[in-house]
Amino acid sequence: MGGGGQQTESSEPAKGDRGGPGGGRGGSAVYTWEEVQRHCHRGDQWLVIDRKVYNITQWAKRHPGGIRVISHFAGEDATEAFVAFHPDPNFVRKFLKPLLIGELAPTEPSQDQGKNAVLVQDFQALRDRVEKALALGLLWVWGSSWSLTLLCSLMLATSQAQASWLQHDFGHLSVCKKSSWNHILQKFVIGHLKGASANWWNHRHFQHHAKPNVFSKDPDVNSLHVFVLGDKQPVEYGIKKLKYMPYRHQHQYFFLIGPPLLIPVYFHIQILRTMFLRQDWVDLAWSMSFYLRIFCCYYPFFGFFGSVALISFVRFLESHWFVWVTQMNHLPMEMDHERHQDWLTMQLSATCNIEQSTFNDWFSGHLNFQIEHHLFPTMPRHNYHLVAPLVRALCEKHGVPYQVKTLQKGITDVVRSLKKSGDLWLDAYLHK
């Protein structure tokens, strides 16, 4: 086994096949899962795609989706995530070829960490079935809803919700082979129509989809010690006697610092900080064009301070909408440290759906189907309801919980989950 893996033809691997920092040159070695899993550190990262072992240590810095999202799969099987994030895997494989250092030994299973192979195979069959609809143009056709939403956003300078839907979809499609126009459109929508940064959003949101509700890997559950979330984090904080905030009352102060401040304050500061630290001058220029447009439109009517007050009020309203629409699908669900689950189980444990209705579809921008959105992140939102029955049947077959709530229950569960977590923290803080 010699420190790098068994050899099929010789006792020593060719130069580069041991998975040094430079990547692979030939990929003739064979490895066990135990060997792959050792390479999960910042300066030493391997991953597996379709039983092929790749050394991504250096290339991860150039990964278009960001270094963090690909690094989250270091030492693991990344096949399902790779397929989910790349609509044209064959195009992306040409970038992987120089990184190939070998493959799994024939005696090794295709799935790591004891994952359910039958479930993984059944989900792949479901994905193949959906992709056949793609080939027929039935499920991945974006249709006229995009055009109408874009038109509304252009006509209404303060139409932040419509712009949010657009930049969200363009961001998910920005990894497509033949969609360089998506990069430009996404920068236009999130930069010029929203005043934010496309690169900041991509790197943050891709991590959320890759490892939802996983502490240290999903930035959406990084509450900066303001809240304790889930069932485990509150107990950990309580045992360590950590009390950055009065967590017992977090379900109450959530209304004061959650929905009102997330976008106007926290996101705004983080976006500006990220653009300057990374010297992302292109995104900064797009962002500044948003404010230039706002002042050109509204300064003659409201003056400088009136224009600032208007956009602040719009962001205040948007922040409320954004928090409730996103958190009712995630915050009451399981939150944990890395558990190395298969794609379907991981996404279903971290997401739930809100009942379909004309109002719910409109209010959430079809993100009430959060389960399908996480399983198929590049699928157009207005087609999720077509796939939902197939996903639900697969979950029933394998005993994977598929949760659907009313809009009212989804919203109230956010508050209930915060109260439950606060009570768990208090109990651990006082008695453990």
TrEMBL record:
GO terms for cellular component: membrane. One of its GO terms (biological process) is unsaturated fatty acid biosynthetic process. The chain crosses the membrane at residues 133-157, 253-271, 291-314. One of its GO terms (molecular function) is oxidoreductase activity, acting on paired donors, with oxidation of a pair of donors resulting in the reduction of molecular oxygen to two molecules of water. SUPFAM superfamilies: Cytochrome b5-like heme/steroid binding domain. It comes from the Eukaryota. InterPro entries: Cyt_B5-like_heme/steroid-bd, Cyt_B5-like_heme/steroid_sf, FA_desaturase_dom, Fatty_acid_desaturase. Residues 28-105 form the Cytochrome b5 heme-binding domain. CDD domains: Delta6-FADS-like (cd03506). Residues 1-29 are annotated as: Disordered. It is a multi-pass membrane protein. Pfam families: Cyt-b5, FA_desaturase. It is found in: Membrane. The keyword DNA damage does not apply. Pathway: Lipid metabolism; polyunsaturated fatty acid biosynthesis. Belongs to the fatty acid desaturase type 1 family. This is Fatty acid desaturase 2. It comes from Oncorhynchus mykiss (Rainbow trout). The lineage of its organism: Eukaryota, Metazoa, Chordata, Craniata, Vertebrata.
